Amino acid sequence: MTIRVLLADDQALLRSAFRVLVDSEPDMEVVGEAADGAEAVRLAREQRADVVLMDIRMPGTDGLAATRTLCADPELAGVRVVILTTFEVDDYVVQALRAGASGFLGKGSEPDELLNAIRIAAAGEALLSPAATKGLIARFLAQEGGDGPDPARADRLAALTGREREVLVQVAGGHSNDEIAERLEVSPLTVKTHVNRAMAKLGARDRAQLVVIAYESGLVRPRVD
């Protein structure tokens, strides 16, 4: 199956470079280019994109607002948003993850990293750059002002079983299903089942949101090195 990719960035030169890279792969194609968030939302609907590579800072409707719109639309539940950023720590990136983005990728990443990110997002599985995303969220939440865990988030954790909490902690640690399976001495399929159940109970769109919830609820404490 061909992965349908939408490029959303206000820099035409960057979009052109991404297009050449993506279209060179036999299993993916660029189905549209957007210079702002509003256009990205419109094209995602029209072209039925599987993955949107979304820049945050764009004129008019920015990438954050566009991500919120895309991820809140039930008809676009299958669309995955990957945030493209030039900043290692960016509060807009964290807000985008909270809104439902599947992860983030630096604009300076290697071509193979970008292509792999698209494939992972399209599969709806592992969080992109899990350790890096975990670190970004941890550092940002640690800087938010010390308001403490979100009581609403913490209360929702009561719906999880003990094993689901264990798995959630491991997910927040940036570990893959295989790594979690080895740590907890269960099968990867069992881990995947626990992850899916945790997402359903917590209303999380994907693993990225699970990481955010784990920190916001206080289940995992931010650490700043």
From TrEMBL:
Organism: Streptomyces thermospinosisporus
Modification 4-aspartylphosphate occurs at: D55
InterPro entries attached to this UniProt entry: CheY-like_superfamily (IPR011006), NreC/VraR/RcsB-like_REC (IPR058245), Sig_transdc_resp-reg_C-effctor (IPR016032), Sig_transdc_resp-reg_receiver (IPR001789), Tscrpt_reg_LuxR_C (IPR000792), WalR-like (IPR039420)
Domain HTH luxR-type: 153-218
Pfam family, one: Response_reg
Membrane-spanning parts: none
Domain Response regulatory: 4-122
Keywords of the record: DNA-binding, Phosphoprotein, Transcription, Transcription regulation
Record's protein name: Response regulator transcription factor
SUPFAM superfamilies documented for this protein: C-terminal effector domain of the bipartite response regulators, CheY-like
SMART domains registered for this protein in UniProt: HTH_LUXR, REC
Keyword Transcription: yes
UniProt cross-references to PROSITE patterns, sorted A to Z: HTH_LUXR_1, HTH_LUXR_2, RESPONSE_REGULATORY
Transcription regulation is among the record's keywords: yes
